[in-house]
Backbone:
């Protein structure tokens, strides 16, 4: 990673105390459902953000979720942790994704749909894995914010956009122009903030899951699939789904649950 990006990461302010408390509760094996609810309810603005996210039509609940306790009960502690960390982290950055040719709204849709896919895919099949995948899916693209900032400051927008147009490959463009892809930048950010190692390494290896250790490989593979299914503009297409299905087959993941997840998010 180039020195300028590393400097940007080192200069990031610490996360609010609420994020540290959420992580402490989630990582404590003796913590309960109520412990998480109490921490979240202390912050009315965070509570509002979580409930807004939980009530997205992407998750397909027919009744409104109007309490944190209800959200934790329906989604589980791991997924609500993902909602909370996404809200807190994204408020820590000034967003300008113009280098990628997308709006902030499109960037938000990208993260929401990737998260909705992994949530629907694993909420019943593997809640423990979802505890890592949920925040990973929300946060994996954060590195694009710093990359875009770097591209703008170094006056590389035209080169970046032309390279992206020619290659049609976001990671290849990031590496060619900046020297590193977004998930690696994201992983470095969360290492700086001392997030749990499994979450950081799942994000770091989602571009090349074959290099991941066995204990995080399935998570990295699943995150790779979700990122292929939802292109950078947040619009799921038949082509992107077909590419994602090829990966599901190659990785030996649950195709039936994945197809249902895609159907839920696209409906």
Residues:
């Amino acid at each position: 990673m180039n020195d300028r990006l590393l400097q940007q990461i080192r200069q990031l302010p610490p996360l609010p105390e609420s994020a540290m408390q959420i992580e402490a509760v989630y990582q404590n094996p003796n913590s309960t459902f109520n412990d998480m609810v109490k921490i979240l309810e202390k912050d009315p603005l965070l509570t509002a953000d979580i409930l807004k996210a939980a009530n997205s039509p992407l998750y397909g609940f027919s009744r409104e979720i109007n309490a944190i306790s209800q959200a934790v009960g329906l989604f589980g502690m791991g997924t609500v942790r993902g909602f909370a960390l996404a809200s807190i982290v994204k408020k820590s950055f000034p967003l300008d994704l113009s280098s990628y040719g997308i709006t902030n709204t499109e960037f938000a849709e990208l993260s929401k749909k990737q998260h909705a896919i992994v949530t629907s895919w694993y909420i019943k099949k593997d809640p423990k894995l979802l505890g890592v995948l949920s925040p990973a899916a929300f946060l994996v693209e954060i590195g694009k914010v710093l990359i875009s900032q770097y591209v703008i400051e170094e006056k590389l927008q035209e080169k970046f956009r032309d390279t992206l147009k020619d290659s049609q490959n976001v990671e290849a463009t990031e590496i060619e122009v900046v020297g590193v892809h977004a998930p690696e930048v994201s992983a470095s950010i969360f290492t700086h903030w001392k997030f749990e190692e499994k979450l950081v390494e799942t994000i770091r290896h989602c571009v090349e899951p074959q290099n991941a250790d066995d204990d995080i490989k399935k998570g990295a593979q699943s995150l790779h699939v979700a990122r292929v299914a939802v292109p950078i503009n947040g619009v799921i297409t038949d082509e992107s789904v077909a590419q994602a299905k090829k990966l599901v087959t190659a990785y030996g993941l649950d195709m039936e649950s994945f197809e249902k997840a895609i159907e839920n998010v696209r409906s």
